[in-house]
Each structure stands twice: as C-alpha cells, then as structure tokens.
Amino acid sequence: MRLLVLGGTWFLGKCVVEQALARGWAVTTFNRGRSGVDVPGVTAVRGDRAFPEDLSRLARQGDWDAVIDTSSSDLPPQDVLVATRALAGRAARWVHLSTVSVYAGWPHRPLREDSALLDCPADADETFGYTGADGSPTKYGFQKAGGERAVVETFGDQAVLLRPGVILGPGEYVGRLPWWLNRARCGGRVLAPAPPERHMQPVDVRDVARFALDQAAASSGGAYNVTHPEGITFEGFLQACMAVTESHGTLVWAQPELLVQYEVKQWTELPLWRTHAGVWAVDSSRAVASGLRCRPVSETVAETWTWIQAAGRPVNHPRWAEHGIDPDKESRILASLR
Ligand SMILES: NC(=O)c1ccc[n+]([C@@H]2O[C@H](COP(=O)([O-])OP(=O)(O)OC[C@H]3O[C@@H](n4cnc5c(N)ncnc54)[C@H](OP(=O)(O)O)[C@@H]3O)[C@@H](O)[C@H]2O)c1
Q1: Which residues line ligand 1 at a C-beta cut-off of 6 Å?
Q2: CA 8 to CA 227: how far, in whole Å?
Q3: Which mutation among 34, 70, 151, 323 tests ligand 1's pocket best, with the greatest number of atoms within 8 A of CB?
Q4: What average pLDDT does the segment 123-135 reach?
Q5: How confident is the model at residue 321 (pLDDT cuts 50, 70, 90)?
Q6: What is the pLDDT of residue 317?
Q7: Cβ(9)–Cβ(27) below 8 Å
Q8: What is the 3-state secondary structure (H, E, C) of 144-187?
Q9: 303: number of CA atoms within 13 Å, CB side?
C-alpha cells in the first residue's frame, strides 16, 4: 500500500504515519517542516499546501493508493480544493480529517451522519463563515464543511470524510486532558463540573489513526462520525485522572448555574465541560459497523499521563495556554461551596 499523508509530523498525522509504517506500507509525508519531526522511514516532501507549485512538485512524486489529509485545520476550502485537484490523477482515494463542527446542530442536538451540515461552498476563502455568540456555530465548522465539499467534488465515491469530536491521547498539544491531569496531581479541592454522570465521548488519537488507515485501504467512500461509542462519565474521567496521578485531592462538584454565575468559560477554563445538550451526542455506530474500535477512555488518560511524565511539559503550543481555570478563581468558587 502506498500512502501519502498530508501533515504526518504532529499528533494525529504522526500516529497515522507510525501505524502505517508498522503495517508495512510505503509512506510519503508532505509538510512545511515546522511542527514536529519526520518519523524515520518516511519519504518526506517539504512544501506548503497553500502554494500550488509546491503541490505540483508533490504530485510529481506519486502515485499513491490513498491520501490521508491531516493538515487542513487552518486552511480554507479553496486550498483543500486546489490540493485535491492537484493530486486527483495521482491518488485513488482521499481520507479527509474533518470534525463534528461541520454539523449545523452541533453542539445542540444529537447528530448522525445524515444530519444537516453548515453551508459553505467548496471554493470559499478564509473569510467565509462566522462564530456565534455562544460559540456555535464556528467559523472553523463552516470552513471544514467547505473542505468536505471540495474533497467530495474531486474524489466522488472515493472520498472518505472522518468527523471526530475531541481527540485526546499522548501528544495532545491542545492541553485539555493534560490540564486535568496536572490539576489532579496538584491535589486539594478540585473544582468539578456537575453533574458527575454527564456523558463524554473523547476518542483516542491512536484509535482515530487506525480507523483512518482502515478507511484508506477500504473501497467505498462516505462520512463517518468518529466519537467514542461507549464514552465515559465526567466522574469516571476525573476519577481516572485522580487515580493515575496518585492525587490526594477531592473532587468538589459545582452545578452549571454556579459556574455560569462565575463566568467560567465553557470548553476552556474547565476543559471538556460544556452545557449544550448535544455536545457529546454524536452517534458513531456507522463507524463502529465499519471497524472503529476505541480503547477505554481510562486507558487514554493513563497513557497520556505516562507521556507527560516522560517528557515534562512536552508541547509548546498557543492552544495549551488557553486551557485551565485561574487558581484564585477556582478558590473563590470552591469557597462558595463550603
Ligand atoms: N485535535 C483534535 O482534537 C481534532 C478534533 C477533530 C478534528 N481534528 C482534525 O484532525 C486533523 C489533524 O489535527 P491535528 O490536531 O492532529 O493536527 P493539525 O495541527 O491540524 O495539523 C498539523 C500538521 O499539518 C501540517 N501543516 C499545517 N499547515 C500546513 C501547510 N500549510 N502546508 C503543509 N503542511 C501543513 C503540519 O506540519 P508543518 O507545520 O511542519 O507544516 C503538521 O504536520 C485536522 O484536520 C483537524 O481539523 C482534530
């Protein structure tokens, strides 16, 4: 199997490459050489996918049985379109990493693959879309929806659209799970967002990678939600963080109304906490029927802690700093709960 990975040095793309090499596949990667380092064993092609001439140079290095695109998160649909067209004659299939944010109903309603999508043309530029006052929809969601269209327009029934929700695991640079792990490790009274039984569906980066490779080797196309089919409760998740960090702390549950009253920013100040009803209601049964297998979330938690301990604070990324609540603010909220 000859695979081209757009990206390939960073978080999901790196996992895809490592697993593809382990399967014995011949792997080419394409990136600018700014994030991470090449996985030994790949044929690395340097270039910026925003530049058509770089894509033409890449295309001359083909052919490939499949492309897995892990590098379109900051790119407008028109750039995705240029890339798909540049590589169309060189690759048989395109597995595109999209997101649940493409759904018009996320995070408000339960979603399946046939739920309505945000409307964005395949050739839209970076100005298209907007982010709503409560953080939904997002400009990112519009842009990714346009990117999906670009892929389908070019690759037709050989286009595979993967829509993960939150991806966690070793290498996570966003800083969601790492923040909770470090907070648990610090101990004391740990502010936790009630209700404890709130269900979550974070998926492990290695399980997304395995599914992407399976889809690269499959023969049909289509869209798949890639969320954890069983998931975990918020309490289970936080208890796993406490256990693995050998925390001496205690979870103190605060009702959403109190957190809103203190203007705790959803999704970032208490990472993964969001009150919207549909945030963790994305049905992945179609992917499961096609082979998606997800390890228990507690395993992701434990192995992410192992990774953090081995590497110190391993990822220097601006999104890391967006996560977590100021300790003074946490103390004020906790004081009101005594
Ligand atoms: N992380 C999540 O929780 C999450 C959730 C849902 C969906 N997704 C989707 O999953 C995909 C992978 O996400 P990720 O978080 O692993 O990685 P990412 O930050 O979106 O991608 C980084 C990779 O893309 C390369 N890249 C970026 N811009 C490039 C350009 N202009 N030209 C060539 N290469 C470029 C980077 O290498 P260089 O910088 O060296 O070029 C790096 O290898 C994305 O499409 C994202 O939208 C992610």
Answers
A1: 7-13, 31-35, 48-50, 70-74, 97, 99, 164, 166-167, 174
A2: 22
A3: 70
A4: 95
A5: confident
A6: 82
A7: no
A8: HHHHHHHHHHHHHHHEEEEEECCEECCCCCCCHHHHHHHHHHHC
A9: 14
What pLDDT, on the 0 to 100 scale, is given for residue 338?
80
Distance 29 CA to ligand 1 centre (A): 13
The dihedral through the CA atoms of 198, 240, 70, 218 has a sign that is negative
Domains of the chain (ranges; CATH) run: 2-164 (3.40.50.720), 176-200+231-276+297-335 (3.90.25)
Look at residue 313 in the predicted model and tell me its pLDDT: 62
Residue 311 burial (C-beta neighbours within 10 Å; 0-12, 13-18, 19+) = exposed
pLDDT for residue 137 is more than 70: yes
**Residues with Cβ < 8 Å from 177, sequence gap 6 or more?**
168, 169, 202, 241, 271, 300, 301, 304
The per-residue pLDDT for 314 is 60
Report the 10 Å Cβ neighbour count for 295: 14
The whole-number average pLDDT for the span 210-224 is: 97
Amino acid identity of residue 24, one-letter, is G
Q: Rounded to an integer, what is the distance from CA 198 to the centroid of its chain? A: 20
pLDDT tens-digit map of 263-297: 999 999 999 999 999 999 999 999 999 999 999 99
Percent of the chain with pLDDT over 90: 94
By alpha-carbon position, which residue is closest to atom 26 of ligand 1?
Answer: 71
Type of residue at 100: V
| Residues in CB range of 67: below 8 A, 6 or more apart | 3, 4, 5, 6, 87, 91, 93, 94, 95
Closest CA to 170 of 309, 58, 52, 275: 309
How many CA atoms does the CB half-sphere of 31 hold within 13 Å? 26
